[in-house]
Amino acid sequence: MRAAKRRAATADRALSRGSAASRSRRAAAPELLERVRRGDQGAVSRALTMVTDEYSGYEAVTRAFFPYHGGSRTIGLCGSPGSGKSSLVNALVARVRKDAETVAVLAVDPSSAYTGGAFLGDRIRVQEHALDEGVFFRSLATRGMVGGLNETIFAAIHVLQAYEAAKGKRGFDWIFIETVGTGQDEVEIVDVVDTVVCVTAPYQGDEFQAMKAGTMEIADVFAVNKADLEEVDKAVANIRDAMSLGPDAEEGAWVVPVHAVSARTKKGVEELLGSIVDHGRHLEETGKLLERRKRQLRKELSLLISRLITRSTLDRVTERHIDLLLDKKSDPLTLGRKLIRGGA
Amino acid sequence: MANKNAYRILIAKPGLDGHDRGAKVIVRSLRDAGFEVIYTGIRQTPEMIARTALQEDVDAVGLSLLSGAHMTLFPKVVDLLRKTGLDDVMVFGGGIIPEEDEAALRKSGVAAVFGPGTPTVRIAEFLKDALETGSWKSSPKKTAKKAAAKKKGRHARR
Ligand code: B12
Ligand SMILES: Nc1nc2c(ncn2[C@@H]2O[C@H](COP(=O)(O)OP(=O)(O)OP(=O)(O)O)[C@@H](O)[C@H]2O)c(=O)[nH]1
Ligand SMILES: [Mg+2]
After folding, report:
1. Which residues from chain B sit within 8 angstroms of residue A130, using beta carbons?
2. A10-53: pLDDT as tens digits
3. CB A18 to CB B5 under 8 A?
4. Are A46 and B5 a contacting pair at CB < 8 A?
5. Given CB 3.0 to 4.6 Å as the disulfide criterion, which of A153, A164, A220, B114 pairs with B118?
6. Is residue A252 helix, strand or coil?
7. What is the pLDDT of residues A138-164, one digit of tens each?
8. A70-286 to CATH, choices 3.90.1150.10, 3.30.1490.20, 3.40.50.300, 3.90.1300.10
9. End-to-end Cα, chain A, rounded Å
10. Which domains can be identified in chain B, with CATH numbers?
């Protein structure tokens, strides 16, 4: 009880960096776009702040970057907390940098529901690339969004897609997105990226976990990480078994590969990246890439609509409405409908 | 409710110092005070810290050092941040820092220093105040005085 009170008190003193001290962080859209297009990472960083923090003027920035959608190969990594997503990102970054390809990473970690604070801890695993000009890493907090992703993720992606590492290059070659360590039901990432890599590790259950719906269903590629540990063969077998229970794949359909990898020893990373590249090629050759891109745009639009509506509606909720519910003079369904329509 | 636009703070450990408990305590306490906190881990060069601050677009960088190398490393980080164009990023710090070094550190652009035993709520309050008012920019000393007047803790030194 006392802890809850203390939390509430902290939350009341809500911190916000939209105040006087941060005003210099705002920047005009055309200038930002121009600098990002010149490969200025400071501008990339500032543009990301504009679209994720929604400073006044962010709408112009969001609009300016939108036309660059479609550039870059976008890869999502999902999986339970501690399965090694960040460590694998680190290994994949090292691998693509060998080919001199550029890479941006957006890594999402949870915001506290009580204080709004967050420990954005993914970065620790990739800090060895901190000085590499071909790598850009940004940590994001969920800030209240469910589904393992921040709602402004699309706008952030478009900023990275506009970045020009070299003349004529559209966007970073790769964009990796690490979702929060998800439970079983967070599948939003599938509507955000071209290729979903599901990361698991040994000792995370048996074949029955692998049979459940949810995150296990959305994988284009499976990575069973920590292959340096003993039980890895069993973990790989569990996933293969679970997948073999489904109907036979149609001719030419993508068969989800299951890789044993170790972010620690780097064993299997080459093959994992190989499968990611193969999946991209498969999407292109079968015309499914266009399908996915449309799905992403649909998601972007629907997220925006629901947010605009939610926000404007929630702004109108007052103590009086809660009292109506308390006194049983109304019910959530009736009141909610009224509020959405602008009444009540 | 999670609030939007929380201040973003980078906690960094420059140099070869492996004492990371204090840094982790700060990370944890700032998270609980409503900040978004990024931690670099140990063994960071000033260059790594500056580039990280740039990519994460943080409002402040907190340096933690217990090895005694603060007089060279702290000013170096400040310098690099300014050279990177990050004029609006506040630098503060903590760890084992002798009192006689504090004035020189402040002169070199470190807004405040917190030693062992500082209640962490005080650090959060200092941060909030400094970032909200932007007072550290115009005159680091004024911010320091103001916070000094506020503090009562026996161990807290600024
Ligand atoms: C625990 C400890 C260790 C542990 C470290 C474990 C770990 N992972 O952190 C171990 C045993 C590994 C260790 C090793 C060594 N240690 Co040692 N260690 C300590 C000890 C006893 C406590 C440090 C500690 O954790 N305190 C608890 C935390 C919470 O407090 P804190 O770090 O001071 O942080 C607080 C404030 O300083 C401040 N703060 C800290 N950072 C930041 C950052 C910001 C932004 C802010 C706002 C505030 C802030 O807020 C925190 C909370 O109040 C200190 C002595 C002491 N009493 O401080 C010596 C001490 C730091 N160690 C010392 C030495 C010499 C060593 C060794 C070199 C010993 C050796 N010869 O091998 C090695 C070096 C290790 C290395 N790789 O760097 C000396 C340093 C001397 C100096 N500076 O001139 C000290 C001071 C002991 C002494 N009196 O001689 N050590
Ligand atoms: N043995 C072994 N440990 C690993 C491997 N990869 C990661 N780890 C360890 O697993 C732990 C979690 O790694 P992270 O990369 O932070 O995992 P994550 O999935 O990003 O975690 P969250 O972001 O918190 O969900 C760390 O202690 C890593 O060192 C691996 O290949 N082998
Ligand atoms: Mg992670």
Report:
1. 40, 44, 48, 51-52
2. 433 445 665 444 556 677 899 999 999 999 999 999 999 999 88
3. yes
4. no
5. B114
6. coil
7. 999 988 766 556 668 999 999 999 999
8. 3.40.50.300
9. 33
10. 8-152 (3.40.50.280)
